[in-house]
Amino acid sequence: MDAVFSSTVDLAAAIATRTISAVEALDAHLAQIDEHNKAVNAVIPLDREGARERAKKADVAQAQGAALGPLHGVPFTLKDMHETSGMKTTVGFPPFADYIARRDSPIVIRLKAAGGVLFAKTNVATMLSDWQSNNPLFGRTGNPWDLQRTAGGSSGGAAAALSSGMTPFDVGTDMQDSIRLPAAFCGVYGLKPTEHRVSLAGAFPDPGAAARSVRLMSCLGPLARSVEDLALIYQIIAGPDGNDTDLAPVPVEGMPKLDLRTLRIALAPSFPGFPVAGEISAAVEGLARQVQSAGVIVEEAKLPKLDLHDDLAQGGALIGMMMEAAQPEPPQQPTPVSRWFEALARRDRSILGWDRFFEDWDALLCPVAMTTAFPHCAPGTPIQVDGKEQSYWMLPAYGAVFNYSGHPALSLPCGRDSEGLPIGLQLVGKRWSEARLLGIAKAIEPMTGGFRRPPGY
């Protein structure tokens, strides 16, 4: 079997049936890293020996007839922001260069309890604050499809590692399209769950045990090479954990098998006033035609009566207030508490507007980002979209709308543009409906072309 490009589900099954050992699976991924990571720079310092010992123990446990978890012996990486005991967590920020947490975060505990073998971290934007993965500690991550282009950010290392066969899955964070945009740029899948669905405890290095300030809009979610893998990892990491008190006690359901003829999908090739490359809009419309031919009811979306540009601005303001609260010293003129509650009230209107929209639709099909992967550049540099310069800060707009509203959304690969770069499309669903959203993505996956490995890997 091709261990480094197998799905997580297939790799776990191969280990369970002893087609391949956990040690062999790990070694295959380490060999892929040794061959390609110098150029891509997706995987940052490895825990080779520790991971090999854990893989050996997984093989021994299996030989002794121990009960196997759904990830037994499967090697995996994590975005460099999850607190992990025995491994550095830096977020690409020099003051955290040597930080090692005292304990694993709740999602790390769950992935290890499922049998996964953590062996490395993946590169990020400094403090997760950009849509390119570049930082002073580890440098810049390239896109496996074209190393002169970005893999996206802030989960760019995770997406690039997946695309190039260096890991079977990863878990990123998404506050403004930070899972979905890199997934789209690198031709893999990424899921942003409903807000407060996956624990944020330990999701950022915290040497001083400070009060957690990021409590809204940010989500943890899986990146993988198939919908089935997203569903598996999502089920493992989602749900209350006894640490993050914001988590909703909503049941975490398995991905259903859906009949396309029962579905209603709204179509939006673009959003009013949001730039998007013509080839991306065309891909949205092309996939819509295919699913319509398969029996899905598809109609052009009448989007909620919201000012989406204002929503983006308000989302940015909320992030700014949370970042202000995280500073060790308050500013000379702190934001009044009344502003915080006004911001929440404005956000409520957006949440309810999208809730009403999804009363009539099973999902919304739309772009993930305004462009495919663009050449490396300084943050803030205007981005060329169909020959016109567009604001750098609009890069995450299509995804950030749903960080602001809290609705679940996933990115799925859907062909390539005229330059051979992956096109990613976005599916958005009702709050708390991740299982159904994944089921819809699974049902239409055969029409998208799915994951394709980049040339040379």
How would you describe what is shown here?
The protein has a single domain (3-448), classed as Amidase signature (AS) domain (Amidase signature (AS) enzymes, Alpha-Beta Complex). 35% of the residues lie in helices and 16% in strands. It is built from 12 helices and 17 strands. Strands 8-10-9-16-17-13-11-12 form an 8-stranded mixed beta sheet, with helices on both faces. Helix 7 packs antiparallel against helix 12 (434-448). The radius of gyration is 21 Å and the shape is globular. The relative contact order is 0.13. The mean pLDDT is 96.
Write a brief structural summary.
By secondary structure, the protein is of the alpha+beta class. The chain has one domain: Amidase signature (AS) domain (Amidase signature (AS) enzymes, Alpha-Beta Complex). 35% of the residues lie in helices and 16% in strands.
Biggest sheet, spatial arrangement of strands: 8-10-9-16-17-13-11-12
Task: Report the portion of residues in β strands.
Answer: 15-25%
User: Which structural class matches the secondary elements?
Assistant: alpha+beta
Estimate percent helicity. 25-40%
CATH architecture identity:
Alpha-Beta Complex
Query: H/E order of the elements?
Result: HHEHEHEEEEEHEHEEHEHEHHEEEHEEH
Q: Give unreliable regions as ranges.
A: none
Shape: globular
Q: Mind describing the biggest β-sheet?
A: 8 strands, mixed
Number of domains: 1
Given this structure, which CATH class is correct? Alpha Beta
Query: What is the overall number of helices?
Result: 12
Distance, first to last CA = 15 Å
- CATH homology group: Amidase signature (AS) domain
Total number of β-strand segments? 17
The whole-angstrom Rg is 21 Å
**Quaternary structure annotation:** single chain
Mean pLDDT: 96
Task: Indicate the CATH topology.
Answer: Amidase signature (AS) enzymes
